[in-house]
Amino acid sequence: MHMFGVAGTGMSAAKLLREGGNKPRVHRDAWDKMMMERDMRLTKEYRKQSDEPIAPEDFKTSSVWRASRIWDD
């Protein structure tokens, strides 16, 4: 009986670690996915955002065409 409690706690801990300590995101649309990809390119993490005024060198090669293509569908 105690194994159910241990397993549930372990699953909750794994989910929190995967999401960076935040609640899981639900009902993600194309905009949310695009912003998560942008955050990943800026900070190397899906759930972290940056307030740096200058983008890193890797971000400068990112294409605007990918963002505009999502809205053309």
TrEMBL record:
GO terms for cellular component: mitochondrial inner membrane. This is NADH dehydrogenase [ubiquinone] 1 alpha subcomplex subunit 1. Accessory subunit of the mitochondrial membrane respiratory chain NADH dehydrogenase (Complex I), that is believed not to be involved in catalysis. Complex I functions in the transfer of electrons from NADH to the respiratory chain. The immediate electron acceptor for the enzyme is believed to be ubiquinone. It is a single-pass membrane protein. The keyword Mitochondrion applies. Belongs to the complex I NDUFA1 subunit family. InterPro entries: NADH_Ub_cplx-1_asu_su-1. It comes from Lipomyces starkeyi NRRL Y-11557. Keywords: Electron transport, Membrane, Mitochondrion, Mitochondrion inner membrane, Respiratory chain, Transmembrane, Transmembrane helix, Transport. Pfam families: MWFE. It is found in: Mitochondrion inner membrane.
